[in-house]
Structure formats: structure tokens, C-alpha cells
């Protein structure tokens, strides 16, 4: 425990509050009532504009007092951690200036948002009080787009770079949802041209250790507006690079698990389940 945690109730009241709110994936219709409550609660909202969520819309329709885009802090081609540090710092400074701030971000705040960890550190050091409000994540929308239940065969949600960095062994009997296939082997955020520096060849080699080369892989981009026109593109694993030109910062790679064989059943366990 940090010694800063030894504080009184009075000082807690003066700590700036940061509410990080998930906006969901499919535009304004994914905003929850809880999200809207937190958008109205604060003097300033920081957010990432999307096709259907603009400053004007937030101010005129959701009665947000004032909003500011975080997009200029996310520089095309920058090292990812530089972008994240800029964003976390901006949130901290805004909260200190106004007493509270709501940050509206795509999807669910606890799915793949690295700078939340910086905010958690600020919270640990009692510089802010942090609250995270759930949003619908891309994992949720992909299940609908792919018509797949993650419990059917078991599923692994994993970051592409982490898988390669730790040479994580894969179990091909489970489904894989691979995140951040836009920046394999690079820390650069080439948002306007994700195929730059993207080492799909390394990802393919690692996947080929566990999956057959003619196994189908699917690139998914859940549609952000209607949910009706999600982009889903399939190819064989051995041709993974074919997907390069379709990859964006909002695509994930899905690999359906291979059906386990009857021989791999634990017969004793099966008998026990049937008996009880
Ligand atoms: C920084 S993470 C943010 C995820 C977000 N917080 C969420 O809850 O979906 C970005 C990664 O999420 C995945 N992603 C984001 N939007 C997506 C979408 N519309 N369809 C499929 N995957 C998406 C991609 O793997 C992308 O590289």
C-alpha cells in the first residue's frame, strides 16, 4: 500500500473524479442509460468522435455541458505508449482543473485499453478517484457477427503481440479471438496505413504450429453504425497475408476451434456425469 492511501474522508471528497465510460461499438444506439448519466454528471466530457457521436450531438441531444475530442492526441505513426501517455496526462490535467471528467471511449473500457492502467496508477497514488462504466465490447459484437457462443468449444481472447512475445502455446480445439492484428511486431500506430510494418508473416508462422495450414481464419470488423453490415472476410491460414489490405485498427482475427475427437473424451468423467 502506498502511504498516500492513509487519508481522511474529507480529503477523499477533494480528489478529482474520473469516470471512464464505454460507448459500445455500434454508435450512439449502444450508449447505455448508465453511460448517459455519467455524460451529464460532469463539466467536461473527453471523447473519441465516431460517425454517429459528435460534439454537436452530445451537446444538443445528451445535454453534455462541454466536450473535447481526444483524437488529436492519438498521432498517426506515433509509438503507442507515447499516444497513451498523452491521453492519460490530458485526462489527469482535465480532472484536476474541473474536479471531475467523463471519458467516453469505444467498446468496453476494460478490453484492450492500455492507458487505463496509467489511470489506475494515478488512482493508487490518490491523484484521482477512478470509476469504470461498462460498455458493449467488440468481443460481444463479434459473437453476434460470427454467430458463435464462446462457451460452445471454449474461447481464448488474446493480443497478437503478447502471444508472439511469450510464445504462448495454443490449443487448436478452442476458438481464438486475436486482437490488435493491425500492429503485429511493431509499437507504431499506423492508423492510416495499418499494413506498414505489420508482420502478419510472424503471426502466421506461430499459428501454423497449432492449426492446419488449410484451416479457415476470419477477419471481423463489427459494423459501427447499424450492426447489419459487419465486414467478415475469410481465407486459409496459409494465405493469411491476403487479409493485409482489409486490416484496420478495428479488425480482429477469429479462428474457429477444431472439433475435439471422440477419443480425447475423458470416459471416466463422462460416466461420472451421466451417473450423477
Ligand atoms: C485498443 S483495442 C479496444 C477495444 C475496445 N475497448 C472494445 O471493447 O472493443 C482495439 C482492438 O479492438 C478490436 N476491435 C475494435 N473495434 C472492433 C470492431 N468493430 N470489430 C472487431 N474488432 C474490433 C481490434 O482487435 C482492435 O485492434
Automatic annotation (TrEMBL):
BP GO terms, sorted: methylation
UniProt entry tagged with the keyword Isomerase: no
GO molecular function: methyltransferase activity
Gene3D superfamilies: Cobalt-precorrin-4 Transmethylase, Domain 1 (3.40.1010.10)
Coiled coil regions, renumbered to chain: none
Domain Tetrapyrrole methylase: 17-158
InterPro entries membership: 4pyrrol_Mease, 4pyrrol_Methylase_sf, 4pyrrole_Mease_sub1
Keywords assigned by UniProt, alphabetized: Methyltransferase, Transferase
Listed name of the protein: SAM-dependent methyltransferase
Amino acid at each position: 500500500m502506498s502511504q498516500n492511501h492513509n487519508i481522511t474522508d474529507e480529503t477523499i471528497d477533494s480528489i478529482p473524479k474520473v469516470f471512464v465510460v464505454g460507448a459500445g461499438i455500434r454508435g450512439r444506439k449502444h450508449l447505455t442509460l448508465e453511460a448517459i448519466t455519467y455524460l451529464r454528471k460532469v463539466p467536461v466530457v473527453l471523447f473519441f468522435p465516431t460517425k454517429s457521436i459528435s460534439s454537436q450531438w452530445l451537446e444538443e441531444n445528451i445535454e453534455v455541458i462541454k466536450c473535447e475530442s481526444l483524437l488529436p492526441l492519438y498521432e498517426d505513426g506515433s509509438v503507442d505508449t507515447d499516444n497513451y501517455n498523452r491521453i492519460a496526462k490530458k485526462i489527469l490535467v482535465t480532472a484536476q482543473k474541473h474536479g471531475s471528467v467523463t471519458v467516453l471511449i469505444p467498446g468496453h473500457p476494460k478490453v484492450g485499453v492500455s492507458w487505463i492502467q496509467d489511470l489506475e496508477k494515478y488512482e493508487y497514488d490518490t491523484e484521482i478517484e477512478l470509476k469504470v462504466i461498462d460498455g458493449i465490447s467488440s468481443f460481444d459484437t463479434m459473437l453476434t457477427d460470427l454467430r458463435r457462443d464462446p462457451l460452445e468449444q471454449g474461447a481464448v481472447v488474446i493480443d497478437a503481440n503478447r502471444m508472439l512475445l511469450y510464445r504462448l502455446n495454443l490449443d487448436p480445439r478452442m476458438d481464438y479471438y486475436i486482437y490488435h492484428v493491425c500492429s503485429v511486431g511493431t509499437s507504431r500506430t499506423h492508423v492510416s496505413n495499418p499494413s506498414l510494418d505489420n508482420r502478419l508473416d510472424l503471426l502466421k508462422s506461430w499459428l501454423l504450429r497449432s492449426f492446419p495450414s488449410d484451416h479457415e481464419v476470419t477477419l471481423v470488423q463489427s459494423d459501427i453504425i447499424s450492426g447489419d453490415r459487419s465486414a467478415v472476410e475469410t481465407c486459409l491460414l496459409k494465405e493469411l497475408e491476403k487479409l493485409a489490405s482489409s486490416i484496420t485498427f478495428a479488425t480482429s482475427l477469429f479462428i474457429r476451434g477444431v472439433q475435439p475427437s471422440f477419443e480425447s473424451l475423458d470416459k471416466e468423467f463422462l460416466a461420472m456425469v451421466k451417473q450423477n
